């Protein structure tokens, strides 16, 4: 049964990639909104979890406001998928027109200095589109890490798709991924990590919208070990057919403290930048999973030596 389910899942995604990128853009956008609205009306676990997460981000919101936000959130989430399905077929010149980033000089100066740059992003708007903008508009290749998906063939589709956009994709496999990322940074490269949710069970506890969450230790550890810049980036959609984003000021390594203390301080600074961007555009935060410790099932703590595996 599991193998059949895996084949069906892979088939559905394969059909989506093949069909959606052939649709006229207005048709694809309308299809995304229709799917989002139908999913939202069913009030399934993902929609309810999104609303519970948004209630922490917008604490004064009542039930009606949360329903409005979750509906907009599902539309934003499906916009991400429709855009992502179409990205490999899009004219790369569009990325320079349709992605508008503020303070991108932070990235360009960091790359020019040759010290390596770590971009840390939350699940806001379309991080794949932002990656395509970096590789196509600025001609800067980068390395990222992807969580292994089931079935394996689906993971392979995602890797091939992202590599077609000019990204090097590493599996989320702990120390091996960390070592490769460190080598890329020491050679002056760019890495991009989605880093608002800990996938390794070994993340750093941060204050996030007034409650404790875990975020990956990897970005801060990589910055300490390689001397690379650590730059949070937040993204959002506006009413025009563009995506906007902001490069936040680089996170500085504290001058004193243990490695763990420095990592905690730097990760909290990343979390604060994420919170600022999410608070401004909560409808574009695609967090349909449990995040805060109060909402998570109890789990066994890992040994301190496993902390470096949280690469994002």
Task: Indicate the topology.
Blueprint: H1 2-20, H2 25-42, H3 45-57, H4 63-86, H5 93-98, E1 99-102, H6 105-113, E2 117-121, H7 127-137, E3 142-146, H8 152-164, E4 167-171, H9 175-186, E5 190-194, E6 204-208, E7 211-215, H10 218-226, E8 229-237, E9 243-247, H11 259-280
Helix pairs in contact: 1-8, 2-4, 3-4, 9-10, 10-11
Query: What helical percentage do the residues reach?
Result: 40-55%
- Widest sheet: strand ordering: 1-9-8-2-5-3-4
- How is the quaternary structure best described? single chain
Give me the secondary-structure category: alpha/beta
Mean pLDDT: 86
Task: Kindly describe this structure.
The C terminus is likely disordered. The chain is 50% helix and 15% strand. The protein has eleven helices and nine strands. The longest helix is centred in the first third of the chain and has 24 residues. The chain is an alpha/beta fold.
Q: What's the short story on this structure?
A:
The protein contains eleven helices and nine strands.
Keyword list:
single chain, 9 strands, 312 residues, two-stranded antiparallel ribbon, seven-stranded mixed β-sheet, disordered C terminus, alpha/beta
